[in-house]
């Protein structure tokens, strides 16, 4: 049966949740030795710092608790993960444990028979700690194919010091107010908004959020099922972004700026007070902290929700974001599920939240969140009427890639809002 790709996470249930090695692949992935040992491979996207150390320590603890089981870790840069993983899955050389974000992308993997059904392998303790909501993004045709690790709603991170320097005393609640803030920052010779459009998806996030404000929840959910993007709100979102981009709010050279790698990335510009704002998910405080001069959290980091638009049909306070988690390949050994249950125990969820400076999926671990910006995210998240998945996740790789590319083309002057909608419709028609 064709896997259903229509997935939207409702905040009504989300309240309270929130170098390639020679190992890996079918040759030795999940292999069992004659002595009863089991070897697994694990791909994640934490290539440096506390996040990388967290996974090394967690794997070591699991191996100690499970003699005879070994896990070979491969840390892959986030922007390279999707391509490398898809190649590995299609070649039959998949890692046993791999990063997954649910939605249509995971549905494609499930449809291809490449992911393990975890429904009956998730322990009662895990279910109780995480609740139903975080699993929604990983549920395909009623079965669960991923273990949530963190919930990652998006919004605008900003430098309180730079806002004060520009005379901005209140965070914007409407797009008009955001445009006013942009102008004040420019008048103070401060780059208003950092944007890593080289990686496409950060630029597309701006379209996603305008669509979240323009389109109703029903329209977005129906599009996930039907792949029909003829509703006026999809075009209006592009027009909103085109008009906003016309105010020149983004950093110089944003079309060739990367998102999260190095001091010159969009996250690095905010980390080093070279720009005042960045639209990003709840992983951003951790990335920003890794790029400050002392590699410590940015002391003046704040956050506010994406502003409202006039006449939009989106729910007041609705949010967009994702759920990061991990799946097991279809041929992985049972110990893969054991590892995922192990990694979401309260002790490790607390360590995860601290290492990544993000919001853990486990309700039991949320008390360790102390970053002021993340506390603001969590408060807004728990009050949101609903939370939509990132659109490129929700609608799958083909539609998502067409959408992301269409947005960048428009920002680069080689496309229009109509072209975005046409590209998305064309990609959907090929599925």
TrEMBL record:
<protein>
    <submittedName>
        <fullName>Extracellular solute-binding protein</fullName>
    </submittedName>
</protein>
<dbReference type="Pfam" id="PF01547">
    <property type="entry name" value="SBP_bac_1"/>
</dbReference>
<dbReference type="InterPro" id="IPR050490">
    <property type="entry name" value="Bact_solute-bd_prot1"/>
</dbReference>
<feature type="signal peptide">
    <location>
        <begin position="1"/>
        <end position="22"/>
    </location>
</feature>
<keyword id="KW-0732">Signal</keyword>
<dbReference type="InterPro" id="IPR006059">
    <property type="entry name" value="SBP"/>
</dbReference>
């Amino acid at each position: 049966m064709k896997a259903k790709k229509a997935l939207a996470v409702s905040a009504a249930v989300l309240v309270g949740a929130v170098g390639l090695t020679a190992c890996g692949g079918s040759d030795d992935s999940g292999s069992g030795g004659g002595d009863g040992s089991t070897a697994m491979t694990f791909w994640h996207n934490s290539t440096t710092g506390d996040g990388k150390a967290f996974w090394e320590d967690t794997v070591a603890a699991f191996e100690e608790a499970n003699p005879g089981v070994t896990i070979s870790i491969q840390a892959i840069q986030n922007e390279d993960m999707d391509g490398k993983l898809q190649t590995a899955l299609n070649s039959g050389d998949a890692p046993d444990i791999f990063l997954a974000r649910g939605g249509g992308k995971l549905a494609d993997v499930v449809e291809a028979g490449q992911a393990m059904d975890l429904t009956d392998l998730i322990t009662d303790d895990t279910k109780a700690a995480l609740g139903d909501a975080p699993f929604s993004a990983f549920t395909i045709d009623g079965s669960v194919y991923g273990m949530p690790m963190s919930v990652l709603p998006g919004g605008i991170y900003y430098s309180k010091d730079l806002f004060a320097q520009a005379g901005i005393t209140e965070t914007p609640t409407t797009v008009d107010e955001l445009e006013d803030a942009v102008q004040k920052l420019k008048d103070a010779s401060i780059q208003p908004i950092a944007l890593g459009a080289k990686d496409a998806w950060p630029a597309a996030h701006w379209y996603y959020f305008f669509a979240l404000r323009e389109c109703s929840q029903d329209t977005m959910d129906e599009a996930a099922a039907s792949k029909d993007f003829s509703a006026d709100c999809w075009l209006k979102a592009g027009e909103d972004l085109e008009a906003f981009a016309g105010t020149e709010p983004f950093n110089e050279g944003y079309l060739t700026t990367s998102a999260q790698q190095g001091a010159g990335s969009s996250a690095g510009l905010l980390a080093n007070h070279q720009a005042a704002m960045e639209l990003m998910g709840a992983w951003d405080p951790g990335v920003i902290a890794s790029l400050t001069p002392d590699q410590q959290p940015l002391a003046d980091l704040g956050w506010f929700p994406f502003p409202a638009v006039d006449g939009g049909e989106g729910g007041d306070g609705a949010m967009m974001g994702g759920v990061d988690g991990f799946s097991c390949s279809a041929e992985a050994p049972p110990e893969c599920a054991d590892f995922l249950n192990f990694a979401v125990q309260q002790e490790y969820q607390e360590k995860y939240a601290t290492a990544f400076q993000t919001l853990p999926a486990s309700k039991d671990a949320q008390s360790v969140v102390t970053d002021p910006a993340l506390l603001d995210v969590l408060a807004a998240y728990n009050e949101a009427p609903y939370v939509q998945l990132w659109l490129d996740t929700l609608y799958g790789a083909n539609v998502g890639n067409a959408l992301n590319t269409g947005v960048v083309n428009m920002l680069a002057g080689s496309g229009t809002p109509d072209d975005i909608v046409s590209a998305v419709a064309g990609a959907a028609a090929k599925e």
